[in-house]
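The following block was generated as part of the benchmark described in Methods. Ligand: flavin-adenine dinucleotide.
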Amino acid sequence: MYDIVIVGAGIIGTLMARELSRYRLKTALIDKESDVANETSMANSAIVHTGYDPEDGTLKALLNVKGAEMYPQLCRELGCRIKQTGAYIAACGEEEEAHLEILADRAERRGIEYAWLSNEEAHIQEPNLSDHVTRVLDFPTTCVIYPWEVAIAAAETAVKNGTELYLNHACTGIDRTETGYVVHTKDRDLETKMIINCAGIFADELYAMVGTPDFEIKPRKGEYYVLDNTVHFVKHIVFPVPSAKGKGVLAVPTVYGNTLIGPNSDFSDPEITTTAEGLAYVRENITKTLKNIPLNMSIRTFAGLRPSGSRGDFIIEEAKDAPGFINIAGIESPGLASAPAIVEYAIENLIRPKTPLEINEDAVMTRERPVVMSELSEEERTEMIRRDPRYANIVCRCEQISEGEVVACINRPCGARTVKGVKKRVRPGMGRCQGGFCEPKVLAILSRELGIPMTEVVLDAPDSRILIRENR
Ligand SMILES: Cc1cc2nc3c(=O)[nH]c(=O)nc-3n(C[C@H](O)[C@H](O)[C@H](O)COP(=O)(O)OP(=O)(O)OC[C@H]3O[C@@H](n4cnc5c(N)ncnc54)[C@H](O)[C@@H]3O)c2cc1C
């Protein structure tokens, strides 16, 4: 019998698992996907917003400000990248400038650092700002992270502390028992006292397995271009003034130097695929705040689905008709930025009052950052190669990733099991060739390390084999 089963291993589920692994609890974390952070937490703008945007009185406002404050320490503990880029909100004309005043007022009341920049000052800092821009509000403490790195690191920590992680385990049904619930999956049933619903765009469907949902989740698509990391287009995140449709089309310098351009906002198509119309919208709307946009340096496009809840705010509460079933739903933007605070809020307000939380003295909440050869000095690299020559064998030319790094990411707790899992952890395939050179090498390493034939190595889902058969 588990104390807690967490359904959904996105940023919320993985951080929840890590935080609960501080205590003497028997916990399982399950996900229908082949890896953690394979849905919304994988495809977003990666911004740790500071919290000026959500309306007063909402959980979004409360938890965004808190979450943003928690990230630098969290990333230090987990050995994850975080880059303080700052964010420019660029107004075009008097009406938008008036809206900036509202944002500045919220920032002032919420204790968020901000600064006004004149048109001239802003253009000196960001020469590619469009000529339509008349005034800029700067939020200098805004950061970007590598969202799935935080989720993977959190899952790794939880697993090391005893959390059981079951990937490729879709929850297909839930039964009530005298003492709690049984979570059904194809391969195993998990009996538990409590369930935490972190199922993202499927949170309403999961809730419907035990009760009558009093909210609905609608996927809202956002599409992006990714520019090659040799292009240094913007130093800051550049936003337009937010509107009822959201934060608008922005440019984001990522932690690895690529630039994201997007997203649009589309309720009509719940598929995680890009569309000609969506990308055309991005191309047109980015010109409002920026010029000289080097879309010819785009190396790929992607789309993500926001789990937009019918209540317009985060939903973090025990289900009224299912005791011990905790909904953490409607976690759209700023869900990533708020994630550590969402988890803290749910534990303190919903879990602690129902479950004794006894500290596990053996729990280790920190994670050592995996070796990244490109971050090391010449001497450190030489020493790594002396100890293990596989660190001299470059597998990915674009991102300069060695065989040693690929092997290490497979053999860690919550290690990579798929080609995409390796790509998410150490980046072969993220560069300009998009895997053309490195994918066969990664496939061969996975086959060797996992002790499976090459034909059984998958790209991502269990049926996504890359090689069909051996032909000689
Ligand atoms: C285009 C876009 C841009 C965004 N930009 C930002 C941003 O810059 N900053 C920010 O703060 N936020 C941003 N967000 C929001 C942020 O990405 C989300 O708030 C966050 O990722 C939600 O995390 P989650 O864990 O709730 O959901 P997910 O990451 O979707 O995790 C849910 C998990 O549940 C699993 N699951 C679902 N059903 C089942 C089932 N039946 N059985 C087992 N597992 C199941 C899924 O496989 C999935 O892994 C953006 C989102 C999008 C789409």
